[in-house]
Every structure is written in structure tokens, then in C-alpha cells.
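With this grant's support, we have settled on a layout for protein records. An illustrative entry appears below exactly as we store it:
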Amino acid sequence: MKRNIKTGSGGAFKSPPYAKSQEREFGRMAEKMVEVISTRFKNQVIKDLDKKTIDKFADAQAGNYARIFLAMSKRLTKKMIRQYSDKKIEHFVDNLLQKTNRSNRQHIYDAVEKRIGISSVELAATEGLSATVTALELETSQWVKKLRDDTLSEYTANTLRVMAQGGSLTDVMASFAGMTEKRKNHAKFTARNQIANFNSLMTKARAQNLGITEALWITSRDERVRPCHKVRDKKKFTLSEGLYSSCDGRSLLPGVDYQCRCTYELIIPDDED
């Protein structure tokens, strides 16, 4: 249920941070999935390319060698999709983001209760944002599924590329080792981004549901803040549009851009508004 909260003299409060423990939990899960896929691909596909297969490749029967490898890769892909099924991924994401959602809801409604006097319990019980939560959870689940599928397809495509260029099994192994570390790092950092994105968009949805339409952009104010976010610091913007800057030519919300650590200061409208 949408409300239009106001206070006699206006006011503002900071947007809720997300728990670092949830970021770490998500990052560990994503990194572990990549690690398991990598280990099994290495042991059950690449290392299983026996001497007889390598000899065939050396005898210029590259097509046979590649087809044998591709068949092994497809078998492993099926196993990995069963182990990390869509249903298991959705269950994990749902449990994790519900923790983030509860923390976000409590922080915002406690802040409103202190300033306006409306019960935080009542606000939580009547907010009607379940469809928004579900959509964001499913979007995050899709990212994890994509991470799973892209990891398998990239390992396959990269190995075939090395074969096509005449590389040896040693070359294949060396290329694979480099890709594994990149995929694990990608998993960890993007998991953090998904948590921040969910938290920021739920902050926006709850604020708008309360009749809050404006906010201030607040950076972390350290040396890691990117220049085009630094120019947005302390500037007012509307939640529906985000904050535009000619620096990057984009309209953004805090915490949604990749690896963004910026936050909101939500502006409660006063009676005159």
C-alpha cells in the first residue's frame, strides 16, 4: 500500500547498508561453483584426453580429436547443470536475498517510525512490494545461472581454440589455468555487485512506496571513488530518474553501477511540499 509520509520540517535519513556477511556468503557460493566446475573440467575432460587421442591429433586428425573433446565436455556440462540446477540456484538466491530484504526493510521503516511516528510493523505489513522482491530475486538467479553456463561454454570454446591453433595438451592446460582464476575473480566481484544492486533497488522501491521522491547522492569519499561518481556527491536527484552526469552521459542510482559503493540520503517531504 502506497503512503505519502510527511514531516512538519522535512528531514532525511541514510539508506540502509547491506550486511557484509551476506556479500561474503554469496561470493563464496559463486566462487565455489566456479571452482567445482573448473576442477571437474580439468580432471574429467582435459586430463582424460589420453595418449591415443593426442596421437590422433598429431596425425592431423584434428577433427576427431576435437569431436572427442567436445563429447566429453557435453557430458560434463550435463552433470554440472544437474549438480547446480536452476531450482537449487533459485533456492539459494531466495534465502540469501530474503535476509538482505529483511534488513533493508527494518532499517528504512525504523528510520521512518522515529521521524514520523508511524509503526514500522504496520509499514512492513502493508507495503505490498512482494512482486518487486520476486522480480529482483529472479534477475539475480539468472545471473548465477549465466555464470554457470558461461563458465562451461568458455572453457569449451577456449580449449577448442587452442587445439585449432595447433597447441599441445600442455598449452591447453596452461590456457585453462589462466581462465580459471579469471572466472573465480569474476564470480566473487559480480556476486558483491548483485547484493549491492538488490539493496539499492529495494531502497528506491520502499522510498517511493512511502511517497519519498528525492534523495542526495553520497559517495564513500575516499580515493577509490570513480571520477564520474565523485561529481555526483551531495547532489539532489529524483528517485524515478536517477542522477545524470555529463561526465559519463548516464543517469544512475547509487549502488547500481558495477562495484559502486555510493549510497542515498533519502529526503522526507515536509508539509509545504
Observations:
- The beta strands are 11-14, 214-218, 236-238, 243-245, 250-252, 263-268.
- The chain has eight helices and six strands.
